[in-house]
Specification:
Distance between the termini of chain A: 49 Å
Largest interface: A-B, 52 and 51 residues
Helix content of chain A: over 70%
Strand content of chain A: under 5%
Number of strands of chain A: 0
Shape of chain A: globular
Oligomer: homodimer
Number of helices of chain A: 10
Largest sheet of chain A: none
Structural class of chain A: mainly alpha
Radius of gyration of chain A: 17 Å
């Protein structure tokens, strides 16, 4: 059915073009400017294709973030502190990729006043990582959500204030801070 | 000169009406929707008055945040950990006020791709608190900026994910986390 609707171009190629274009527009022109319509034009994809796949800009950005973050890094055989350090450095590297941090801060800004988008962020984006971390750390949902707030919040606040990802020395300080916690 | 331009209404009354209206619109309808033009209409203030005082929405939001946060809480005679705890609880309470957290997350989202707005946020909003904290804690600029990233970032990330301020139990955990640091 999908191939009938979008003849000649496999869905995964369309997704890849849309995700790459969205991050580029967010990076070059800012989150507010990167509308679904501008993404469609810049990616050379029909607007109807975009709106059928992602009914809102929030839904598009959540999938862009999912694609950018991909699977979690391997966590088996690690101590608690090694697990946390791996996750912090992975998150810092992902947020530092062009457009990713800006897309993340932007979607939060929309989510504060959009319950449906918060639900999408929580279930589609955050939940798989949260469950993985709960298992890897033997921690409660509340403990992992707090850890995610601290790590993602710190990295994103730095990006909002400076426009740049956190430098290595401060990422080290963040690793130090959260591995010293005994939740 | 100012009273000639805005006859009959003292500037501080206009500021108060504009700040209160901005927070209310951000709280009720979201950051993106709360444009300078809508604020002018809802506050009953001429658009030219708004644009003369705050040439951009970012400039308006920075002043709204400055007004909402006000002076820092008293820090004299406190230990290092008491100082940090006071600041964390003060920031948590301010960010929990209706519209304040949403305005904060929103302005960061714009600032990521707007160097002039970042400069305004850093110098007009953040710098006075940073200098005060450096003196109160005997800490370096880098240490205080990192502390601010952790505290404000964590509180704002929670608001972006849940749409609600952080509950007391998690604010306690945040106090615990940052007072255990030995920068």
């Amino acid at each position: 059915v999908e191939s009938f609707k979008t003849p000649g171009r496999p869905r995964r190629d369309i997704d890849a073009a849309v995700f790459e274009t969205t991050l580029r527009l967010v990076h070059e022109r800012g989150y507010a400017t990167a509308t679904s319509e501008r993404v469609a034009v810049a990616a050379g994809v029909a607007k109807t294709t975009i709106y059928r796949r992602w009914p809102t800009k929030g839904a598009l950005i959540v999938d862009v973030l999912l694609d950018a973050f991909g699977g979690a890094p391997p966590l088996t055989g690690k101590t608690r502190d090694e697990t946390i350090e791996t996750v912090v450095r992975w998150a810092a590297a992902k947020i530092a990729e062009p457009g990713v941090g800006a897309a993340f801060v932007g979607v939060f800004s929309d989510a504060v006043s959009d319950a449906a988008l918060r639900e999408l962020l929580a279930t589609r984006f955050q939940e798989p990582y949260r469950i993985l971390l709960q298992e890897a750390l033997g921690a409660s949902e509340q403990q992992v959500l707090f850890l995610v707030d601290v790590v993602a919040g710190t990295l994103l606040h730095r990006m909002g204030i400076t426009g740049e990802p956190m430098v290595d020395e401060d990422v080290d300080a963040l690793v130090d801070l959260v591995t010293r916690t005994r939740g």
